[in-house]
Amino acid sequence: MHVVVPFSADRPKTRLSAVLSAAERREFSNAMLADVLDALAGVDAAFDTTVLATGPVEVDATVAVDDRPLTTAVNDRLDSTPTAVVMADLALASADALADLLDSTADLSIAAGLGGGTNAFLARDPAFRVDYHGASYRDHLAIAEDAGLSVREVDSRLLAVDIDEPEDLAEVLLHGDGAARDWLVDAGFELDIGGGRVEALRE
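^ 2-phospho-L-lactate guanylyltransferase, sequence as received from the core. Prediction below:
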C-alpha cells in the first residue's frame, strides 16, 4: 500500500491570511503536516508514505515535488497498487481513525470533509480517479458508482475536520494534542467562549 499526502509548500492556507502572515501560514501548515505524518506512523500496517508537495519541504518522509494541479498530480499516483490519499491539514487525525480507513477492503474507502470535500480515501481499484473541485465528495462517490466499485463511507469527525478558515482554528485548540495545537498556543491563540460561539482569538 502507498499513502500520498498532498501538501502546498509555496502558498499554503491562503484563507487563513486574515489571522496569519504568509510566514506563519507556512509554519502552521508544516506543523499540521507533522501531525498527519505522526498519525500515519502510529498505524499498525505496512505502507510507504510520500509527501506530494508543490515545492521542497523538509520532513521525515519521502517527498515528491509536483506543482501540477492536485487532480492531475494525484491521478498520476493511482495505479494497480492500493493507494491512499490523506490531506495534510487534518490536524485532528489519529492513528486509530486512519487505521479504520486503511483497513477497509472496499474498492474505495472514503472520508468526507465537513464542507463536502474529500479529506482521505483508499482506492484498491485503479478504475477510481479523482476530480478535486468544490464539494468533491459527491463527485467521487459518483465516479466510484459509474466504475462499479464497492464503497465504504468512513464516518469520522477526526478525519472530517480540515483546517482552512480562521474559525477552524478553535477545533485544533479544543481537540488537538500535537504540533499544530502547540504552534497556535505559542503564537498566542486561545479559546474565547462567549456569545454562543467558541473562537480562537489571538492575545
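The chain has a mean pLDDT of 95.
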